[in-house]
Structures are given as structure tokens and as C-alpha cells.
Design brief:
By secondary structure, the protein is mainly α. The chain contains seven helices and no strands.
């Protein structure tokens, strides 16, 4: 037995297999903190303000979205969604992109799942900002 094989445990052989079978495990935490905080604050504003209920629901939402999409794909999808409304030729690049449309669809699926899992509603009635 050589040095390298002696130091390997059975677990060191299993992790590559597990990550290969469950690719979402590899990118659930690749969102930068700044983007997570920005998403939570934006979500809280859209749902009635800064309340503890909104904090939990919106934190859950970005975690759910991050479990569906790697950061790079989320960033591209949000960029395409933002700029496809741009009028004229410049917006056409974003409106007519098959890759952009696919990414936006995946983002929208992730957002719908987040709404279900995290009990997000359109706007919480009676929420008072802190």
C-alpha cells in the first residue's frame, strides 16, 4: 500500500459520487452575501416591509432559489429579465435569446417553488415597517 491509498478513507471515495448524483448540493451556497441580502431586502419591501415574518419568508425564498440555480445562472436570468423590457434593437438581444428565455423560465420556476415553500404572499396586510 502506498502513502496516498493509506490516507484515503471510504468516505473520500463516496463524496464525488454523491456530488455527481446531486449536483444541486454543489452550488447551494455560491451566492455572495451581498446579493442574498439585497434579495431579502427587496423581497421584504415587496411584501409589506421589514417584519420578522417577512425576514424569515424572504430568507427562505432566496435559499430556495439558490438551491435551484447556481449563482451565475441566476445572475444571467435576472439580467435577461431586466433588460428584455428595453425598447428597440438593444432590447431585442435580450428578448430573442433562447438561452436567456430558458434561464428566465428556470428562474420563474424557482421563484414559484420559493413562494410555495416559504409561504410568500403578494403583500402581507397589516405589516408595519420597523
Amino acid at each position: 500500500m502506498d502513502k496516498n491509498s493509506a490516507s484515503r478513507t471510504p468516505h473520500s471515495r463516496i463524496w464525488p459520487l454523491v456530488l455527481g448524483l446531486f449536483p444541486c448540493l454543489g452550488y447551494t451556497n455560491d451566492f455572495p452575501t451581498l446579493d442574498r441580502v439585497d434579495q431579502v431586502l427587496t423581497c421584504m419591501k415587496q411584501h409589506g416591509g421589514q417584519t420578522v415574518d417577512n425576514l424569515y419568508a424572504c430568507s427562505c425564498a432566496i435559499d430556495t432559489i439558490a438551491s435551484f440555480l447556481p449563482y451565475k445562472q441566476w445572475l444571467e436570468a435576472t439580467t435577461f429579465r431586466t433588460f428584455k423590457a428595453m425598447p428597440g434593437e438593444k432590447g431585442g438581444l435580450f428578448r430573442e435569446s433562447p438561452v436567456g428565455s430558458k434561464d428566465i423560465k428556470r428562474l420563474e420556476q424557482a421563484e414559484k417553488e420559493a413562494q410555495k415553500r416559504c409561504f410568500l404572499r403578494a403583500r402581507r396586510v397589516g405589516a408595519k415597517p420597523r
